[in-house]
Amino acid sequence: MGDTPAATSERADVVVVGARCAGAATAIPLVEAGRRVVVLDAAGLPSDTLSTHLLWPAGVAELRRLGALDAVAELGAPPLTEAFAEGAGFGIASAFPAVDGIDYALCVRRTGLDAALARTAAAAGADVRPRSRVHALLWDGERCAGVRYADADGRFREIRARLVVGADGRRSTVAREVGAERPFHLVPSGRECYFAYWRDRADAPRHIAAQWRDGADLGTAFPCDGGLLLSLVQPPVSDSPRGPGEAERRYAAAIDRLPALARRLEGCERVGRVRSATGIASYFRASAGPGWALPGDAGHFKDPVTAQGIRDALHYGRLLGAAAARVLDDPAALDAALREWERRRITECREIFHWTNRLARGEAMRPLEIELYRSATADPDLAALTAGIFSRTRRPGELQTPRRAVRLAAGAVRHQRDRLPAVLTDIARELRQAVADRVVSRTTLRGTVPPAAPAATGAAHPPAVPGEHHV
């Protein structure tokens, strides 16, 4: 940084790097507690970002807790009051479980969602500064003490603060600068992600959030704002060479392999290009240290197959802001609060992390999965339990009890006799996976994490997610 121009300096209680879901959610309770918060974002706002953006009822409830739901509702996304999932010929329809009185999901394009959250944070009292790119952190010994950034006019500035929050996504500058970029637990996905918007039909069922599985492919159709439909496909990872037009080809081919999704898109008109994320991996990073914390994808990421990212960014961002607001004036108490916040996120997210990674394997439906779908078509309670897992009102462990496992295994044997070797192999595999997940939860994800490596100015940092790239 020796050639960097001299920077002007100011002070704040908290600097939040990133003004989107996690950043705005962190800032709002802090300013409501009377703290001075500066929120920096490298992008102009409003602007788009790569994201699959379904909010289950738990995510919508978070918007209301933050005071942003009215602004988001004005964007016009239809309430999604019914969940539909189909696999192996079995279709399951269910209502969403209510979370604090919210019994619907929303699919909102990120341009409008993020802008509404940033406006809500600014209205609450946060100083939101778009086009402000952080270049380095400031340190007081081993304690993070602020940021150095270039403002919208390219001038370098410094902000000294008691807490620096890195809400700047998977490629987090803050995570890199504190030495936390390399995850302490990482699980590569077996799926790739491609999505596009479609102008929806006038007679379309715009109250249904739908998912279909056929073979190893998975596809969705989520009505969203602007009269559009978000259709996402997650085919298995491909080793084919990347090149111009590959995203378009992969997207179209996956839709062709999902006849029910293709029928849902009949009469719809594609709007804009296909967007993609490949080389995806779910992970946990060390997310708290002296004077710094990493909410949102900067600290923890799950494959988009279960659409949990926005809810968790809002929820744990809000919890972080509320916890820090009370103890900002006491460094030791602040560090303890940050560690407890980190521990809470790990322990609360590890079950859904394991559940997500199973769905992200990129494999054809296995015998026990088929039996789950078959059983849920005749058992409304089982269908409601499955919907509740996605909305975080129920735990995967409630579905994976020994009694239910025995029932599913017996049902699979009874209904799939012609595939008995595959059924037995699947049962054995699930038992091994359950043991492996429990071991990981009790060791790697036990709620405490190794400290981040000491920050080293100018040091080379490993990639956050090896091989990650977008087409």
Automatic annotation (TrEMBL):
Record SUPFAM superfamilies: FAD/NAD(P)-binding domain
Limits of the FAD-binding domain: 12-334
Pfam families from the UniProt entry: FAD_binding_3
Transmembrane segment boundaries: none
EC category name: oxidoreductase
Known EC number: 1.-.-.-
Gene Ontology molecular function: oxidoreductase activity
Start and end residues of each stretch annotated as Disordered: 446-471
Keywords carried by this UniProt record: Oxidoreductase
Segments of skewed composition (Low complexity): 447-462
Presence of keyword Membrane: no
Domain of life of the native organism: Bacteria
Span of the signal peptide: none
Protein name: NAD(P)/FAD-dependent oxidoreductase
Organism of origin: Nocardia thailandica
